[in-house]
Write a structure and sequence with these properties.
mainly alpha, disordered N terminus
Length: 298
């Protein structure tokens, strides 16, 4: 790997992987919160990022204090930060468009293609290489995701638009991983997520208002779900992902989407009474095996 593209790991592998895994769990519970949110899909996406901002501000201030610098001196909206915010906004917009125009299984399975784009683009854009074991692990994860989700996959000409949106979601999410990896060269995790979330929130607010969706949930239950979506899934999930990407390679980190799919299935079973059979359990086991195969050997 080109030395100028090497990021010195901030944490040992076990700590970085723990952040990645816990972040995946936090992001994986987001569908439960979205279904309880009592708002439109774009409105819930906006609240997901907007309600995370107070927590992220505290985190950013803490990081600034560790550097003995005023926070305002670190609030730099450079190209990598702006790109990170734009790409995450695109990911959420097309994800929700996919859900509206196709079934959840199709949208989820197509979104799981994000690591494929990361593998294709990691070397030309970041100079990060990967081993044959990484490709084998990714292939095993994809097979596992198909068994985990694909039982409900449908080929329907009337859903092709939604399927296309699901594919675009995977592209945005893959590019989002690359953007975070680049931005982490210049920014700490908390400050990066705080700045990029401001950009994402502004974009999603405009889209929500243009779509004519109400921003106000109907009950306190909906408001609580939105708060959890912001604090747990975004501040926790995306924040821990940013921490992990300061130490782990972008290709390995992108496999987090498969852990997220397992978490979504488990939380759906616990909170929404969604069935899990032997096929789904086998798919989840394959995903974990694929991640083990793809793990860094050093």
């Amino acid at each position: 790997m080109n030395s100028k593209n090497q990021i010195k790991p901030e944490y040992p592998f076990i700590i970085a992987f723990a952040a990645l895994f816990i972040g995946a769990l936090a992001m994986g519970v987001s569908p439960v919160y979205v279904r309880m949110a009592e708002t439109g899909p774009f409105a819930s996406a906006f609240w997901r990022v907007a309600l995370a901002l107070p927590v992220l501000l505290i985190w950013a201030k803490y990081e600034a204090s560790k550097l003995n610098q005023p926070l305002r001196s670190l609030l730099i909206f450079d190209r990598s930060v702006i790109l990170t915010g734009l790409l995450f906004a695109g990911d959420l917009v097309f994800w929700h468009l996919a859900i509206l125009n196709t079934n959840v299984a199709n949208a989820t399975l197509l979104a799981c293609l994000a690591p494929v784009w990361v593998v294709l683009l990691a070397k030309p854009f970041l100079g990060e290489t990967f081993t044959p074991a990484t490709i084998i692990g990714l292939a095993v994860c994809l097979v596992g995701a198909f068994f985990l989700i694909g039982g409900n996959y449908q080929i329907n000409p009337q859903q092709l638009t939604g399927d296309f949106f699901g594919l675009i979601t995977s592209v945005f999410f893959g590019l989002y991983f690359l953007a975070i990896r680049v931005a982490r060269r210049e920014h700490s995790a908390g400050i990066l997520i705080f700045l990029s979330t401001i950009i994402t929130a502004v974009i999603l607010l405009v889209i929500t208002l243009m779509a004519g969706q109400s921003l106000v949930p109907e009950t306190w239950k909906g408001a609580s779900a939105l708060a959890a979506l912001g604090i747990v899934s975004h501040a926790g999930g995306q924040g821990l992902l940013a921490i992990a990407l300061g130490s782990l390679t972008v290709v390995f980190s992108s496999l987090v989407i498969f852990i997220e799919a397992i978490a979504a299935a488990v939380f759906g079973w616990i909170f929404l009474d969604e069935a899990i059979g032997l096929v789904q359990i086998g798919g989840g086991a394959l995903v974990l095996a694929g991640i083990w195969i793809a793990r860094p050997k050093k």
